[in-house]
Amino acid sequence: MSSKIQINKRVKGLPREELEKLSKTELIDKIIQLEAYNFQLKNIFNKKLDENDDDLRDELKELNQLNDQCKTEKPEDVNKKNAIEDSTEGSPENPNAVGNKKNKKREFDFSKCHKRHVLMKFLYFGWDYQGYACQEDSNATIEYHLFRALTRACLIESRNSSNYHRCGRTDKEVSAFCQVISIDLRSKFPPEEQYEEDSLKNEIDYCGLLNRILPKNIQCIAWMPLRSPVYSARFDCVARTYRYYFPKGDLNIEAMQKACKLLQIHGDFRNFCKMDVHNGVTNYIRNLQAANVLPCPNVQDEQRQGYSMYFLEIKANAFLWHQIRCIMAVLLLIGQEKEEPEVITELLDVEKNPCKPQYTPAIGLPLNLFNCEFREKTCRRTDEELAMAAQTDDIVPPQEEIMDIDSTPDTSPWIYNEENLQKLIENVQSEWTQFSIKSTMIRNVLHNLETLLDEQFKPQAVQSQVLLLQDGVKPRQYQKLLTRKRCESLENRIEHFVKKQRLIVN
């Protein structure tokens, strides 16, 4: 696409000078918009509160009172009231004021601390969470618990000042065995001593400190010191590998493997994802480096009954929204012999099939971010390097030239702790014990039921293990993918959001 698409970033908070330039109609529209947003936030609060959340109810009541007060009081009255409260704060007549030293909590002084830039590797089981990234209406996210632990351990002052990047953003119920973040953490040692062997050995036990605060299904595995302050877990990751686990059931594994070979291209995957054009994503070309269906290791083979476990391992430089789940949905149809493997080639031909057929992605529960690979030298430049380049009219050199300029890599070996790894294994073994007991009990029930069915009726074997993965209603009569109703094309979606002033075409 020759035109460049950009998000129309509307300023959320205007300064007083800009507000004074607005017309009366524009100001009324803005007030209505803010009141609607305020009403929406109150509904979210009320929805999330339980009967036992008395503290939060008091905060919400106070918020509503303050909102009503702001509607009735004049701005000059509010300013006068705030000035009086500031002057009496901490005085003998007002002993309960916020500024009173007895009631004021002692804050950690980060200005006296050193910092170091690191990579941190985490694992988590996502089936109890609403996804990785923080959300306004839910605390059940991985990122919420992660930053809660980082701030409680006084390793960072705030998220905004922590130079934070994440390698991947997993969806609801999706797990990760190798989620990596880059972040600035508090350090015992000044920058010039941080790479000495003694300093690395005697540094703060980041993993042990966080694991004592984090939930048991979110744990830190290792950390890595970085030499460049701009090294990013997001932008310097060169490959991400995901695994999607599934039972064999009645699937034709050979047909699925043949289809995987057709996926290994540098191509347009718009028919294998959920398009988020409204967020400015208009390029759906990805380099899918590898895709294979493999049997799970160390799993008892029950090939005849269809209970043996397999996984799809898929590797690329980056992925689109729901890309793996959409790929898995089509692979399941191929494995059930409802589609031919060549349907992959048809869907990748966006000139012949510009509109995605309507189908439901596979569920997210079996998916996990299995591995991440990083370049040794960052492709990003510090503010000082950018300033020097601007003075000399220089451009950013390619990765090979950066490595030639300074051969010292930014990365280093991961730092593990034996005691922390032992505790981590204990936690994961507890998870395994819990779910293995449930799995064994369910498998026992299935064995008894299947034996009973076979003795009484001698029917064809029931192999419906993969139905759960296909998140949708099972149709009475199957309709081929290429004959189904189609979603809107990419061009139509772009035109729609341009009209809504969400996107700008340059």
UniProtKB/TrEMBL annotation:
Keyword Isomerase: yes
Pfam families according to UniProt: PseudoU_synth_1
Region (Disordered): 67-101
Assigned GO CC terms: cytoplasm; nucleus
GO biological process: mRNA pseudouridine synthesis; tRNA pseudouridine synthesis
Basic and acidic residues composition bias: residue spans: 70-84
Homology family: Belongs to the tRNA pseudouridine synthase TruA family.
Annotated GO MF terms: pseudouridine synthase activity; RNA binding
Superkingdom as given in the UniProt entry: Eukaryota
Keywords, ordered alphabetically: Isomerase, tRNA processing
Name the UniProt record assigns to this protein: tRNA pseudouridine(38/39) synthase
Domain Pseudouridine synthase I TruA alpha/beta: 266-374
